[in-house]
Protein 1
Amino acid sequence: MSQYRHIAALGSSFAAGPGIEPMVDADALRSSNNYAHLLAAKLNALLTDLSVSGATTATILDVPQLTMTGVEFPPQIQGLPATADLVTITAGGNDLQFAGSMLFEAWSRTDASSPLVAMMAPEFPHGIPLPTEESIAAMAEGLIRVVTGVHLRAANARVVLVDYLTVLNNSSVQGHDWPCTLEQTAKFRQIQDAIARGFELAAERSDADLLRASELSQDHGLGSAEPWVFGFQPSIEKTVSSFHPNQKGMAAVADALAQLLGE
């Protein structure tokens, strides 16, 4: 029997699993086949999944989140049960505008007249937002604050930071599932590397464990023989899943977590 009886999951879309059926919360774009659900099933544990697509470290900790459907979610940590003995955290990519900027540039290149381009344009007035040392440090500090907040609410919980699956690697070239240029790809890989660095800093400066999903998935980015993320989805109904973990990716993270935990 597993020592972990109550798992809680905090995070953004890379935890929630948009595009992976079935959805258990359409407003949060949260799947019942994301890594937290798969891990809970492996461990026969109770699960409190608080992840919401689009979340930042701030909306996990102390800022309400308004989703694209008009539903407002309270800060995720407010729902964290004191009985949780394992808490996973995947966040920070939206602090650095990773998935949003990829989606904006992909739509801009494939259908510049799309209403999505007009809607997202104000978020990216200067194009792809390259990370700085200051923005990486701020992301890491956000994660550290979340870890601290977890301990205040669930004092006995083991905390595991789960970084982002690799989206772009050396196999990722321009094509139907990745419509961006080599120059844009290089910039997005800078953001991707910055996210991984932010997680490393947070783990170094807190007592949280770190699952390096980015390393685990280096050979499974877009263009690889077995990608663990969805490619570009050029329909408005499905586009939220673009550049996010697919079912194989979520299963790989769940398996790696079980191994990390010794289960």
Protein 2
Amino acid sequence: MPQICSISVGKVQPITQALQDGSPITYSAIRKLPISSKDNAIEIQIGQLGIKGDEQSNLQVHGGIEKAVYAYAIEHYAFWKDCLVRQNHFDPHHELEHGYFGENLTVSGLLEQEVYIGDKWHVGQTILQVTDFREPCFKLNIKMNFKAAAKIMAQSGFSGWYLRVIKAGAFQAGDEITIEPGSRQISIALQNQTFYHSKGQTDLEF
């Protein structure tokens, strides 16, 4: 059964510094930390605009009603750790902390090819609905201190997905996710493939 591994939130903060050439400071809430985990399963409130205490810096691409919550599969963490270790960007003796990719929900038992636009998730008191894949951008590169991160996410298809909140309420880490299938016409994996080819990124290597 799919499950919530952790719930994470973040505040808008600068992720770059001002440069002498006049380059603007980049702000983001991509740096998220768990507030409910299996070891500390605190019930968290979720409203129409997302997890209580969470923020987004650019509401044109993140947040809002249609992208209120971002979910990411814990199954991809091993892949990313291997990439980062091989590129000397991460200590092999450490583990990536949940929320590392800017996700609100780190989940298990669901991958992009199994998640479809329109699927509804019943979790605790809430109902969420899958709305879109996550299109990677340069802020992921900055956060991970790895300039190839966004390209690798595009090529691998390990993007995660957004959800809207159909019914507000509360849930906690460890809660099971019951799926109510939608029309099942467009999967997150299919969205990733379309983005990958339409953006001319088929020559990417990592």
Protein 3
Amino acid sequence: MSVDDAVERLSESNSGHNKWVGVYIGLLAVALAICNVGGANAAKDANRANIEASNTWAFFQAKNIRRTAITMAAEELELQLKAQPAMPAEARQAFEAKIKDYRTTAQRLTTDPERKEGLDELFLKGKALEAERDVAMRKDPYFDWSQALLQIAIVLASVHLIIGNATILGLSGGLAALGFLLMLNGFTLAFSLPLLG
């Protein structure tokens, strides 16, 4: 086919078939835009959840270090009480009050249902954020492959408009269907492909 033939074929764009192929290409472009948004959101969600999980685990570690230091201080005071059984009553009461204060603080660092900042709550929050990150990371490859397939389908449909080869249009349709399926799976994770996640 010469260039003149290709230009003549394109000028026949008012034929019904070419109009429907144009609509098909437009729908593919819309699907590609939606897929791009889904992929970008999955990447952002994975990044955000990863940062929040890292911050939560850092806070968890800081609280755990503090709880350990306070527990050790309480144990040190208890050992001093045992080592000095003849300690004056006033000093013993001060030691016991401080030990009680340390134990209360250590317990509050372990679990704090009011503020949701105890080690138990932070552990659950960190695990939930990691799970959220992992889900977003599993979604991302489906969007990537879907975008590639939809782009190839658009190119093949455009080539069909120029050369009129029905096989190329059929191949475009097959790739588009696979691209749509992968895009839907990117949103729903209805199934898992070993190579993609």
Protein 4
Amino acid sequence: MSTQPPPAPGLRERKRLEAMRRIQASALDLFDRFGYRQFTVEQVAADAGVSPSSVYRYFGTKEQLILHDEYDPRILELLRSVDSGATWTVPQMMEILRHGAGLFMSVLGPGDEERVQRRMAYVVSEPEVHAGMVRDAQKQEVEIREIVASRLGRDGSDFEVRVLVAMAVWGFLSGIFHWAESGFTQSLATTISDVFEIVTRPVGSAIDIEQADAD
């Protein structure tokens, strides 16, 4: 499996990302100190030194101040770059999934895991943020399905593609929720690695192992 790093963002995009990081950092600090429900977008904007219209332009809604994830587009680009130009088989796609943890962790920088933890604490505690993350995952599932279908030489509505991508996306989401709900007791990398190991495990193997242990 080979990947090509996505092209570096241009100056305008870098400035946009820096502004969004600064606003999100202000929002997280305020929410941590005073509570998510206590602060408005307008107050976050004032703390970050920008106009409320800038916050709405960048994030759209209050919950996106938590949910915005700059890593998602980069992960999609990495997925597109895996063995660029080659047509995959389903076994090859499953092998790529086994490397899913590495693809995800490769886009994180120093301190990013702590920021993900802070964000996920609100996902599991605030219903509107939780619902927003589920909606975002539904959109990502469609995007990933189109990438995978194209690389497999199939239609985006192909049944097998739909099921395989859904297993990966919702398995990943379930693992992230478990990671947060269990108090972040293991590293993010270990959690994601465990998720994709389970997702790509032959059907029934876990049950077989448990039954063998019981015998």
